[in-house]
Amino acid sequence: MLQRRAAMYEQSSQKVLNYFIETGRLVTVDVTCGIAELIWHQVHHVFCELDFRPQRTVNTILLFAFGN
Predict the structure, then answer these.
(1) How confident is the model at residue 68 (pLDDT cuts 50, 70, 90)?
(2) Which of 31, 35, 37, 67 is the most exposed place for a label (fewest CB within 10 A)?
(3) Over 80: is that where the pLDDT of 59 sits?
């Protein structure tokens, strides 16, 4: 049951990821070091490069994927 749910989630997520890849709006950050502080520093750097300034409070999602 859990494997089926995981496969369904992966399939539906891939469509969303492909959309952002195809529209040039997917940013990736190398998290292979596994050190949360360094990872957050890199994420913060990406936001600063994009001159990210939220106009209002929103729910933000950061997705970290490990592996291929």
Answers:
(1) low
(2) 67
(3) no
**pLDDT for residue 22:** 95
pLDDT digits (tens, 9 = 90+) for 5-42: 988 888 888 988 899 999 998 888 888 888 888 888 88
* Residue the block writes with tokens 């040039």: 24
Structure tokens belonging to residue 60: 């933000």
Assigned token pair, 11: 């399939």
- Residue extents of the structural domains in the chain: 2-49
Whether residue 46 contacts residue 29, with contact meaning beta carbons closer than 8 Å, is answered with: yes
User: Which of 7, 20, 1 has its CA nearest to residue 63?
Assistant: 20
Helix (H, G, I), strand (E, B) or coil at 37: helix
Cα-to-chain-centroid distance, residue 42: 13
Q: What is the rounded CA–CA span in Å between residue 34 and residue 64?
A: 11
